[in-house]
TrEMBL record, chain A:
Keyword line: Endoplasmic reticulum, Magnesium, Membrane, Transferase, Transmembrane, Transmembrane helix
Domain of life of the source: Eukaryota
Subcellular locations according to the entry: Endoplasmic reticulum membrane
Name the UniProt record assigns to this protein: ditrans,polycis-polyprenyl diphosphate synthase [(2E,6E)-farnesyldiphosphate specific]
Pathway in which this enzyme or protein is active: Protein modification; protein glycosylation
Origin organism lineage: Eukaryota, Fungi, Dikarya, Ascomycota, Pezizomycotina
Gene3D superfamilies named among the record's database cross-references: Decaprenyl diphosphate synthase-like (3.40.1180.10)
Automatic annotation (TrEMBL), chain B:
Lineage, uppermost ranks: Eukaryota, Fungi, Dikarya, Ascomycota, Pezizomycotina
Enzyme Commission number: 2.5.1.-
UniProt xrefs under InterPro entries: UPP_synth-like, UPP_synth-like_CS, UPP_synth-like_sf
Organism in which the protein naturally occurs: Ramalina farinacea
PANTHER family named among the record's database cross-references: DEHYDRODOLICHYL DIPHOSPHATE SYNTHASE COMPLEX SUBUNIT DHDDS, DEHYDRODOLICHYL DIPHOSPHATE SYNTHASE FAMILY MEMBER
Protein name: Alkyl transferase
HAMAP family associated with the record: ISPT
Amino acid sequence: MAKSKETDVYRKDASTKHNLLTLKQREDLIKPYLPKAPKSSPTSKRSRPIREFLRNQFHLFVFIIIHLLFSIYIRIRQTYHILFDRALAVLYYHHRAPELIKQDVKGLTRFPEHLSVILELRGDERDQAGLEGLMDELAEIAAWCTCVGIPMLSVYERTGILKHYIPNTHRAVSSKMHSYFGGDVPSLQVGAPNISSYLNGNAAPRTGDASSRHLSILLLSAEDGRSTLVDLTKTLTEMSQRKKLAPSDVSQDLVDAEITESVMGEPDLLILFGQDVKLQGYPPWQIRLTEIYHVQDSNGVGYQVFLRALHNYSKAQMKFGR
Amino acid sequence: MHLSQFRRWLLQSPPVEWAILQLRELLIGALRQGPVPQHIAFVMDGNRRFARQHGIEIVEGHNQGFEALAKILEVCYKSGVKVVTIYAFSIENFKRSKYEVDALMDMAKVKLAQLVQHGDLLEQYGARIQILGQRELIKPDVLEAMDRAVELTKGNGDAILNICCPYTSHAEMTSAIRDTVVEWSQPMEAGPQKEERHFSERHIVHNIRARRLSSNNSNTNHDRLSPNNEALALRSHSPSSGTASDTEESSSDPLTNSSSSTTLNPSTTRSSPPLSSPTSSDNLKSDNNITYPDPELITPATLTNHMYTSSLPPLDLMIRTSGVERLSDFMLWQCHEETEIVFLKVLWPEFDLWGFLPVLVEWQWKQQQRRKGGDVDGQGRGVGKAKTR
C-alpha cells in the first residue's frame, strides 16, 4: 500500500495522462515498495542464513496463530449459521400445505422460469440409503416448485445415478405430490438429456387449475457438461472431414442452439445446498448468466434455503453487461 | 469530522505508516507458509456503483479500480500466486456508452504504455502479461499498446497476469471447438508410413487366395477350417502404422486397402468382401487418399488445450466483488469443476488486503480440512510446496 502522500502525487500524474512526472521520478515513487531485487538475494541468503531461518520461523508462527484464530472464528460462524438455519426452519415450516408455501412467496415479484439445483449423493454409489435420500430430497424440491409455480426444474447430481432410476424417481415424486396436494396431482414429467422422458398417465387436463400446473424435471450429471461439448466437437469434426461443414460455420449461435437442444437452456437460478460454492462439473455452457445462490455453511436441503433463494432472486436485477 | 481528520493524520504519520507496511509484509509472509492458490481469477465488479455512491465520475471509478487492482496484484504475487486472471472487459461491455468504452480503452492504452516505459523494472519484478480474448474487436491503437506490453514482458517467467479483454467464455469455448475442428480436419500424411511397411498387401491377398484354392482342392473338413484360422491370424497381426489411424484400421477389414479406409466411406470398405479383387481396392486408393485423425480421440483435455488458458495451472479460486452472484460468462469452462467460487459484497475499488486476507485464509483452511479428510487427489496441489519454502 503506497503512502497517501505518494498516492496523491501518483493521481495527479495520472490525471494528466502521466505527463507530469518523468520516468525517473515515477520509478523513485514506487521503489520503496518493491521487494529486494531477486538477483541479489542468493548472496544475502548465504551471508545471513540464521536471520532467514528466524524470519521463516516467525512467519510460520504467525501463520499458525492466524489459522488458530480463524478456526475458532469459523466454528463460531458455523454454529451461528446452523442455529440461524434451525430457527428459520422452525419459523417457516411448510407443513406440506401448498397454501402455506404460496403465502411464503406472496410478495415476490419475479420467479425463475427454470430452477436448477445441485444435489449430492451421500455415501457409496451402491448404498441404497443414499439413493433413497437423494430421491426424497428431489421429491421435496419438486413439490415446492409446483406450489410456487416454477414449471421447470433441473437437478444436477455428479454421478448421474438417478438417470438409471427414472421410473422410480417419477414414482417417488408422484407419491410426494400426493401427500402435498391430495387427489389433485399436477402433471409431471421426468427425463434426462438423450433419454426418453417419463410422463405420468393422468396427464390429460381435468380442471383448468390442474392443467396449468405442470412440472418437468430434468436429471443432469457430469456427462452433460464437458462430455456433451466434446461430443458436439466430435460430430462437427466428422462433418468437417466429410466436407459437409466449413470450420467457419462453427459459431456461438450454432453451439448454443445445439447444446440447448440436446441438454437444456440456461437456468435462471441455481441453488447450491452444499458447504462450498463449487460447481462440481455442472454444465459449463449453461451457467453463463445463472444466478447462483448458496447459504454460507449450509448443511443440506431445506425449505428455508429454497425460500431464501427465491427471495434473493426476486430482488436481484439483471444487467446483461450494461 | 475532527475525529476522521485525526485518524487520517494518525494513519499518515510516518511511524504508523511504517508499522502498517510491516504488518502487511508480515501477514503476506505468513500466508506463504500455507498452501497458496496457484491461479486466481477476479471479476472486478463495482467500479461504476462505487463512482455513483461517492459522487465521482464513472471514469474516475474505473481509475480507482485500477489502483485497487495494482494493490491486489502485489499481494497475490508476493504471497506466491503464480497466475492471476482478470476480467477487464466483456464483449457485452461494448453495449455501454461510447464515452465510457472509449475512456476504458484509453485508460488501458495509457497504463500499458506507461508500464512499457519501465522495461528494466518489469524485467526484475514484473509478471508476464497475456491478453486473452477476441483481439479483432479491439481498436488498432489499443491493440498496438497491448502487443508491445506482451512483447516486452515475454521474458518474465515467474508470474503471469492474464487480462481478459474483450472476452466471453462462450466465445472462448466456441473458438476452442472451432480450432479443434480445424486441427482434426488437417489430412494426415499417409505417404511415408506406407513406405516403411515391408509387406505388400496385394501379395498377401494373392497368398491367401492361393491357399484357399489349394484347401478347396483338398476338400477335407480339417483343411477347410484352416484358411479361416489363417485369415484370423492375419487379421490380428496386420501391420499397424502406430498412429492415430490405428483405431480406424482395426475397425475395417485389414485385407482391403487399410490406409485409405477412413470415416469418409465406412460403408464401402466394410461391405466389400474380405477378398475383393486388387483392382477395385486400387481404385479406392486413388479416390480418397486423404486420412483424417479419428474424431473419437477428441477428449475434454483436447478442448482444454484449445482454451486461452491451456498452459496455465487449473483455476483454484474465483473472486467476484460487488455482491452479484453470477459468473457473467467468465471462465465457465475453467471454473465449473473444482474451483472455489467466492462472492463478496464489497465493491472492487474498496477491495484490498483486508478484504482479500479472509478469503485466502478460508481457502487455506478448507485445503487443510480436505487434507485431513483424506482425499487429496489433485486438489491439494499447493500443499506439498508450502513445506519446502
